[in-house]
Design a protein that fits this description.
Mean pLDDT: 89
CATH architecture: Orthogonal Bundle
Number of domains: 1
Shape: globular
CATH class: Mainly Alpha
Number of helices: 10
CATH superfamily: Urease accessory protein UreF
CATH topology: Urease accessory protein UreF
Helix content: over 70%
Structural class: mainly alpha
């Protein structure tokens, strides 16, 4: 079977986990005019990629995928608890929990899931997104690096979808923005891969503030 199909499946917006229901603070950044055009959008997304995802979210997800691929259930459980504790806001916590739950429901019905993974998922009880993503990659025999690439691409695609719904930004402009941001996506993956596990961490204050304010935003397109 073509290995690319599994990768496309994991990164697809058709994956029924609700990822496109959330903006991760971007809707509030648009509301506050921090993001108001293509250039400011590129700055916001670029900062998130290099200052947050590359330093924390991406290496943490990569560690999840590596532990799952190696059947290291003790390490995977520890990483899962660290990920859950690292959500800065109620909104980000609920987002990760809801998407993790949706992945759990999906995985439980998949024939590709082997018994050790099923047993682990049952013990965890309340998985989050990174854990579910790692187990999905394991079930579909996607390597950790490819699973990370799929997650980064899915994140970027979601951010661009938010922009097209909240700004006067058309599809062609979004494609030009994609071309501008793809090198940063590559840099984020490379940095996450090379990062010493002892140095994983970030302090995305702007994202946390945008997320907290979004919980009280009067009119919203995206979930809180």
């Amino acid at each position: 079977m073509n290995a690319a199909w599994a990768l496309l499946r994991l990164a697809s917006p058709q994956l029924p986990i609700g990822g496109y229901s959330y903006s991760q603070g971007l809707e509030m950044a648009v509301e506050q005019s921090t993001v108001h055009d293509s250039a400011s959008a590129a700055r916001w997304i670029g900062d998130q990629l290099l200052l947050n995802l590359a330093r924390f979210e991406a290496p943490l997800l990569l560690a999840h995928c590596t532990a799952a691929a190696q059947n290291d259930w003790a390490a995977l459980l520890q990483l899962s608890e660290a990920h859950r504790a690292s959500r800065e806001t109620r909104e980000l916590h609920l987002e990760s929990r809801q998407m993790g739950y949706s992945l759990q429901q999906l995985l439980n019905g998949l024939p590709e899931m082997d018994q050790p993974a099923r047993d682990f998922l049952q013990r965890v009880g309340e998985p989050h997104l990174a854990l579910g993503w790692a187990l999905a990659a394991r079930a579909w025999q996607i390597g950790p690096q490819d699973a990370l690439a799929a997650w980064l691409w899915s994140w970027l695609e979601n951010q661009l979808a938010v922009l097209m719904k909240t700004l006067p930004l058309g599809q062609q402009a979004a494609q030009r923005l994609t071309s501008e941001l793809l090198p940063l996506l590559q840099n984020a993956q490379q940095h996450a891969t090379a990062l010493n596990p002892d140095h994983i961490g970030s302090a995305p204050f702007g994202l946390a503030l945008a997320s907290m304010n979004h919980e009280r935003q009067y009119s919203r397109l995206f979930r809180s």
